[in-house]
Amino acid sequence: MAEMETKEHDVIVVGAGGAGLRAAIEASAQGLSVGLVCKSLLGKAHTVMAEGGMAAALAHNRPEDNWKVHFRDTMRGGKFLNNARMALLHAQEAPDRVRELEEWGAVFDRTKDGRINQRPFGGHTYQRLAHVGDRTGLEMIRTLQDHGVHQGIAVYMECTVCHLLKDGERVAGAVAYWRSTGEFVVFRAKAVVLATGGTGKAWKVTSNSWEYTGDGHALAYLAGADLIDMEFQQFHPTGMVWPPSVRGTLVTEGVRGEGGVLRNSTGRRFMFDNIPPLFRADTADTEEEANRWVMGDRTKNRRPPELLTRDEVARAIRREVKEGRGSPHGGVFLDIASIRDPDYIRRKLPSMYHQFKELAGVDITREPMEVGPTCHYAMGGVRVDADTAASTVPGLFAAGEVAGGLHGANRLGGNSLSDLLVFGRRAGLGAAEYCKSLPSSPQIDDEQVKAAIAAALAPLGRQGENPYTIQNDLQEMMDRNVAIVRVEEELKGAVDAIQRFKGSAAKAGVGGTRTYNPGWHLALDLGNVLLCAEMVARAAWMRTESRGAHTRLDHPKSEDAWSKVNLVIRLEGKEMRIVKEPVPPLPQEFRDYVHGDKA
Amino acid sequence: MREATIRLFRGEQGQGKTVDYTIELDEGMVVLDAVHQIQARQAPDLACRWNCKAGKCGSCSAEMNGRPGLMCMKRMDSFEEGKPLVVHPMRTFPHIKDLVTDVSWNYEVNKSIPPFRPREGQPRIAFQEDVDRVQEFRKCIECFLCQDVCHVLRDHANHARFGGPRFFVRAASLEMHPWDQGGRLGLLKDSLGIGLCNITKCCTEVCPEHITITDNAIIPLKERVVDRFFDPLKMLWRRLRGAGK
Description:
The complex is a heterodimer. Chain A is α/β, with parallel strands linked by helices. Chain A has helices at about 20-30, 65-75, 85-105, 135-150, 215-220, 255, 275-280, 285-295, 310-320, 340-350, 350-360, 415-435, 445-455, 465-480, 490-505, 520-540, 590-595; strands at about 5-10, 10-15, 35, 55, 120, 130, 155, 160-165, 170-180, 185-190, 190-195, 225-230, 235-240, 260-265, 330-335, 370-380, 380-385, 395-400, 405, 485, 550, 565-570, 575-580. In chain A, the strands form six sheets. In chain A, strands 7-3-2-11-18 form a five-stranded parallel sheet, covered by helices on one side. A five-stranded mixed sheet of chain A has the order 19-17-12-22-23, covered by helices on one side. In chain A, helix 10 crosses helix 11 (about 350-360) and helix 15 runs antiparallel to helix 16. A five-stranded mixed sheet of chain B has the order 2-1-5-3-4. A two-stranded antiparallel ribbon of chain B has the order 6-7. Chain B has two domains: about 5-100, Beta-grasp domain (Ubiquitin-like (UB roll), Roll), CATH 3.10.20.30; about 105-240, Alpha-helical ferredoxin (Fumarate Reductase Iron-sulfur Protein, Chain B, domain 2), CATH 1.10.1060.10.
């Protein structure tokens, strides 16, 4: 293997979105050598697309806010399946992470008294999202990127990790290929942090980019790590529905945070008909009350039902469309034009204005948008230790969307960006501590490297099915069978179909050279996204109840017995095993304010 | 089904030729959709970059009928029907393959700019009107289209002694930050070569984020550089006060 390009670092971070960058910055600050490996160019990761803001109980706009209320909101939003320790750390540390970002150069929108402004969002009791118009993710990734490049981190751009190397039980590094040349590179490392984001490319109508093929989920699974909560896939209530070109493109929850209302074809604000008992006490029950809240009287009035959690809103929109009260192109109407003046809309929602104007020919300051649910976020992921982000494989860590636990059965909007910072930092620290405690460096096994390279090269030049066709078939099937509302028969059909797709993918072939060949890259990514699709379908089949983002038509109620278990997935031999394990208990001191009315 | 012809540059490292592809048109289709359709049905090895497909990430920059832009924001119906749409990679950067160029030079320039350095002990209070100016610059999505059209780079290949509009915007976002300690004017004058810009405003015109690059970033920075290094009265004043070095 003398001719192989090899890079050696203490820590390799896979993925350069918010979590990966924050992890790399932290591990580097601990004095370790860090390599940051990313599939795209630096600064283009999914974080850049995040719009509405990051949730942190800074209490700038509402002095009543504090971490306990944030913790409670997160647990209730997650329907109590969350890892309570993660939710606690997240709520406690998010404010410091936001302030730290400001010290590194982020420029948030300001309150009238000159502090970081916070906007309301679904499921958050108080207005809590630090934001920059509707481009908060861009602000965050650019700040981390520009801070990170001065920390001595080695950045490997357009480099895709295709295999994790192990030395016995522990991680020893990774095999990757340079997308531009198709040449392979071996990363030797004591610890690997996965920060690869989600799995949304298993669905057709999605807000996710080509990168979201569940690479980290699959790498961890194949390396023997546990994954949890894979049945919970978030469908964001508001994606664009027209024209077909942009179906699925995200419409920020910030539109509703700024007062936008949802109406069906009869003009009814149907969210008033969809307030679940859990949130009844916090939600306005008349349009008048909701309007007073939107116009600024937030202490005496309750939030509009448009700001219920995403699972509730997505289900309600689906029902309106299904029952024939949808918009002309199969969505519902989202109206901000009749609520706010044009200048305000253009200032607070500039990219929404631009996006609808350019791509749909709709002026959102004058007319309503058409929106419908779009696949958005994986709540499930690598099972991690809350404090260190360590997976169940020694030396393997995970942070951000690829990790599971924080969000339980449904994530609150705004909790993702704060998740990236809080647990990105913790993963960097955890990996650094692990490296320092290692008695000896793990060794690379050349046979593992050779096997990984041979597998990666197999599709090139092979006569086989077009990987784009397989991906499209998978996506259409997942949209039909494993979407917002699920039934046993369809889930079983999905598992069968995925087996067939796996057969095709194992024989997929692409022409061309190794130089920047997207067809080849997709053929490799397909293996990962198929594994993730299978995990989602199998776990969804097994969970015979409805909870959060997982709705079973054949089991419409939330069941007490299921409230106490996470589904854990792991590779045993060659089999995908799914087992029920108890949800980590909520300490008594927190039980009162999570289940009670007051924090 | 309506059809259109896309005339794409195919090849590696600048060597290659244009190839015509017939695509099926759909309502609202953008150029990136057409490229994806070609990838999926006709040429799976066709290289292009993309991520967000909503004008937020700046990955899919290319030159369409000679005009640089984001493929994800350019609708097919904005071009004349019946004529082939010619799509080429950005010309200012070394070619890798098909529509993909090597933009790594930009990342090297960025590294040379000293990071944000806020004054210690100052309360972190700033009013919206204090940060509006900086927020305009921070809208940049690093599509590098301004770099692509800048004639100092495009026609004169002055990459070694000129930072380009993107990094004047970046420097402006730091220098004009109310809490930053400044100190980048020497860099702007010397290695970033801001004096080479002769304000033709091509960068401003091409910016998909509508950042007023020339008027709001470059000209004020040029003025600061001139004040700092070339104003004889100010130089004398600084020398008398013992502040100039």
